[in-house]
Amino acid sequence: MMQLFLSPVDVWLFRDGRPFDANSDHRANSLFPPYPSVMQGVIRSHQLVVKGVALHDPDEIKRQVGTVDDYGNLRLCGPFLARWENEQLTRYFPVPTDVWVNEKTKQFEQLKLSELDPKIVTSIPQVPMKNGQPAPLKLLVTAHESKPTKDSPGEWLNQDQLVKCLQGNAVSATKTSDLFVRETRFGIKRNDATRTTEEGALYEAEFIRPCKNVGLYVEVEGYSGWAERGVMRIGGEGRGAAYEKITAPALPSLKIELPAQFKVYFATPTYFKNGWLPESWSKFFDGEVKLVAAAVNRYESIGGFDWTKKGADAQKPARRCVPAGSVYYFESNGTAKLKNNVLEMNAIADEGAQIGFGQIFIQEVNHV
Questions:
Q1: 96-153+252-364 CATH
Q2: 103-112, 143-152, 286-295, range with the lowest pLDDT
Q3: Residue 244 is inside which H or E element, if any?
Q4: Which of 152, 229, 298, 328 has its CA 20 to 30 A from that of 321?
Q5: In a 3-state reduction of DSSP, which class is residue 106?
Q6: When comparing pLDDT for 108 and 200, which is higher?
């Protein structure tokens, strides 16, 4: 396995899933960290450079890195926002959605699970069903004497803070501005034939400028031959990234046995075929497992561009994904286990686990 740290040569551009063609939109928003689907393209493209593959040889490209739908031997974990601190690499993750901001302490505190009135359950769409009846759900609420506020003390937790937060401890967070800033730049479309600008074709693009010592961390399996350090193209406009192989502390490993009450935190976006729910939880768990609560932010639309096609067919269909930071609460009879596919990929996703979608942390819940 290669552990890579990517730092910017200049600014970066990672567009969201909206089309940015002529007459479709005038602004390109940037996402950071980029989606795993973006990173797989970056890594696979550089693998072709490492192997010296000619881009007009589709058979050799397929042999080396697979196809659009087949990733071959590639396995990715990440990308995660990371920063060098006292010669140690620290990974950062989105604040979990099952917390609230205490107005007095300005810290994130854990929401509490509370029983949901059965009369209310019947009016909620997409509630998991059991024997034709709505399954019992629980609400995530603050304490009665608490006074929550919308002001956020930060958007990111380092790995140690995240683990403490998932365990139910109050934590402080890091502001986005301490890790990266957004820069808006304007441009105008040019006619290459006449070398003139086109009237009414003004556009703006949002770029990402990571702060000092900040970059992206990604784990790569299945590829070899990379130098210890190098430069690669990344994101929109083919911007540059300097990469280096590093040795960083491992992410928390998953245990096959699951506690009677636990929650799953998604460190990267995940795709479920039924919106915020998978086709079946039995795809990921052995034994009886019941979802009792979930804290999910608004969906993210993840699409892309297929360079092997032209015109309207080149735009990949956008999929609605569960965003990173989402938390799902489960109960079991204490004998449930994780299936091998989850243990191997460290992920829960109907599709895309191989390239980094649905990366998870699992924490026992003791305050139900």
A1: 2.60.40.4350
A2: 143-152
A3: strand 239-245
A4: 152
A5: coil
A6: 108
